[in-house]
């Protein structure tokens, strides 16, 4: 299960790769989130419909596009061994086009694309060699990240989309920083003192961090 705009983003990105680079395999979709939210098996963060795992676009070692056989760990040489004893190669051009489409399409709002350092380097080197705009490459370098608190993500990209302003008002929060190119979240007004008095009779007492610190350590 995923938020409708995540599903639409995946459909659009997959069709873009297919249209601009025909002849390749379909985009493989891995785990999203549980239908009612909350923790699901094998995942800590797929909880809100904003996350999805995307196994790589791959080719044979000779460069013929093939369907990804599963979550295959990709090495720094862009090769991965399969359970059948063969090898597949990371389809860098199609993988970069997928990343580029997700980053540049309005209303998707990528927050993270977790992947290994090695795969990130392959994609960024390819983008620079193609002469992609510096701003786009900077965004890609920012969101493509190997997480420090989980597996290396060398067998897929974990895509997370950011909360929209409307979703934030409804309670969507967390998952990473707010990048400068994303639409700003609304600043909700603070609760007025008069409202506290109406509800509880007295406003809350706020003690600053500095007042609670013991100078003696």
Briefly summarize what is shown.
The chain is of the alpha+beta class. The chain has helices at residues 4-20, 92-104, 117-129, 134-143, 165-169, 193-200, 209-212, and strands spanning 51-54, 58-59, 65-66, 79-81, 87-90, 110-114, 144-145, 157-161.
Question: How would you sum up this structure, described in words?
Answer:
The chain is 32% helix and 12% strand. Helix 1 (4-20) crosses helix 2, helix 2 crosses helix 3 (117-129) and helix 3 packs antiparallel against helix 4 (134-143). The protein is built from seven helices and eight strands. The protein is an alpha+beta fold and 217 residues long. Strand 2 and strand 3 form a beta hairpin. The strands form two sheets. The protein has a four-stranded mixed β-sheet. A four-stranded antiparallel β-sheet has the order 3-2-5-4, with no helix packed on it. It has helices at residues 4-20, 92-104, 117-129, 134-143, 165-169, 193-200, 209-212, and strands spanning 51-54, 58-59, 65-66, 79-81, 87-90, 110-114, 144-145, 157-161. The protein is globular and about 60 Å long.
Q: Mean pLDDT score, rounded?
A: 83
Based on secondary structure, the structural category is alpha+beta
Order of helices and strands: HEEEEEHEHHEEHHH
User: In total, how many beta strands?
Assistant: 8
What strand order characterises the main sheet?
A: 1-8-6-7
Share of helix, binned: 25-40%
**Major beta sheet summary:** 4 strands, mixed
Can you tell me the residue ranges where pLDDT is under 50 for at least 5 consecutive residues?
Answer: 206-217
Beta fraction: 5-15%
Overall geometry comes to: globular
Q: Give the oligomer, counting copies of the same chain as homo and different chains as hetero.
A: single chain
* Total helical elements: 7
What's the N-to-C terminus distance?
49 Å
Task: Output the radius of gyration.
Answer: 22 Å
């Amino acid at each position: 299960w995923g938020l409708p705009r995540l599903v639409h983003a995946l459909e659009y990105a997959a069709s873009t790769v297919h249209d601009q680079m025909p002849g390749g395999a379909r985009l493989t979709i891995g785990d999203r989130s549980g239908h009612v939210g909350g923790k699901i098996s094998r995942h800590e963060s797929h909880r809100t419909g904003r996350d999805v795992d995307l196994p790589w676009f791959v080719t044979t070692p000779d460069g013929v596009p093939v369907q990804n056989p599963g979550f295959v760990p990709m090495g720094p040489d862009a090769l991965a061994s399969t359970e059948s004893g063969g090898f597949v190669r990371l389809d860098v051009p199609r993988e970069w086009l997928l990343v580029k489409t997700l980053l540049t399409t309005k209303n998707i709002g990528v927050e993270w694309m977790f992947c290994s350092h090695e795969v990130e380097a392959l994609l960024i080197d390819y983008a620079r060699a193609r002469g992609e705009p510096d701003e786009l490459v900077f965004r890609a370098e920012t969101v493509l990240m190997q997480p420090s608190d989980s597996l290396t993500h060398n067998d897929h990209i974990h895509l997370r989309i950011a909360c929209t302003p409307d979703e934030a008002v409804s309670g969507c929060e967390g998952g990473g920083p707010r990048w400068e190119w994303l639409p700003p979240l609304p600043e909700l007004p603070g609760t007025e003192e008069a409202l506290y008095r109406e509800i509880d009779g007295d406003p809350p007492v706020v003690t600053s961090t500095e007042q609670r610190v013991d100078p003696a350590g």
